[in-house]
Structures are given as structure tokens and as C-alpha cells.
Amino acid sequence: MALRNIRNYNEEDTILRKKSKVVKIIDEKTQILLADMADTMYQANGVGLAAPQIGILKRLVVIDVGEGLIKLINPVILERSGEQQDMEGCLSVPDISGEVLRPQKVRIKAQDENGDYFELEGTDLLARAFCHELDHLDGILFIDKILPDTTVSNIEQ
Ligand code: ZN
């Protein structure tokens, strides 16, 4: 088990605002990185983690909304439908939460650790996690999408 440091978002550190690169070679290093990302996510009690959050600009994501670990390499959204509005937070922006509008259901495509393509459908929290984590790969943060007047501070006064 290897834990990585989760980057906290701040204006000076621009890594979370950069676009991540497509993973062209899927090898043992990729598998180790995904395993470390999963360990780091579980340790932080998160439901998802994208590689840029540990300072690595590669299109890699891990998610577990309580239905088992999902590892995604080069994920893309194929379809979105419906709408849901709910509270959202981010391990890289621990100070605030806020309500974000997301699709109720999304269908994604990604590669597994053997490089094979697969498709997955997610509804509710899983759909939200897919959208939130895939946004990270394009330098988009949930704070860009918080609905007006729904921001909540997580810092105890
Ligand atoms: Zn996040």
C-alpha cells in the first residue's frame, strides 16, 4: 500500500487546472499508480480520485461509491440524460461544499488495465462521481459549477 499526497487547490498551484494526457502505454507502472490512487482515495474517505489530484497529469480515475472499486483509463462520457441537483465536495477543495447540477445518468467508455475497452452506466451518485472525476482530467473543478447561494463552509468556526 502506498499513499500519495493529495493536492489542495489554490490559485498558485495550477496543476489542477491543466488538461491531463491520454495514457498511451498501459503497463505495470499504470497498474501501480491506479492501486496507489485507490489506497489514497480510501484513506481520505473519498468516493473518487483523479490522477491530477496527486500531481500526475494522466487520464486515470478511481471511483468507489460503495459498490466496489472502478479503475478507469482514458475515460470518456458517451451519453448523459436527466438531471440531479445535490451537494458535492472534493478532496482537493476540502474547505467548501456546494450544490452542483449533474446528469441523472451517464454512460462512459474507458480502458481497463489490459488496455481493453469497456462501457459502464452510472446513475445517481455514480453518475455524479463519473462527471466530477472526468472534469478533473480537463482541469475543471466542481467549484466552477456550484449553484448560486448553495456554498457551505466545511471549516469549523
Ligand atoms: Zn474532486
Report on the structure:
The chain has a single domain, classed as Peptide Deformylase. It is built from two helices and eight strands; from the N terminus they run H-E-E-E-E-E-E-E-H-E. It has helices at 28-43, 124-136, and strands spanning 48-50, 60-63, 70-81, 84-90, 93-102, 105-111, 117-123, 152-153. Strand 4 and strand 5 form a beta hairpin. The longest helix is centred in the N-terminal third of the chain and has 16 residues, at 28-43. It starts with 27 loop residues before the first helix and ends with a strand. The structure holds zinc ion. Zinc ion (ZN) binds at residues 90-92, 132, 136.
Summary of the model, kept short:
This protein is α+β, with helices and mostly antiparallel strands and 157 residues long. The protein has helices at residues 28-43, 124-136, and strands spanning 48-50, 60-63, 70-81, 84-90, 93-102, 105-111, 117-123, 152-153. 18% of the residues lie in helices and 33% in strands.
- Compute the number of strand runs: 8
Any idea what the CATH architecture is?
Answer: Alpha-Beta Complex
Distance between the termini: 35 Å
Mean pLDDT comes to 96
The molecules bound to the chains, other than polymers, are: zinc ion
CATH homologous superfamily (4th level) name: Peptide deformylase
N-to-C order of helices and strands: HEEEEEEEHE
Percent helix among the residues? 10-25%
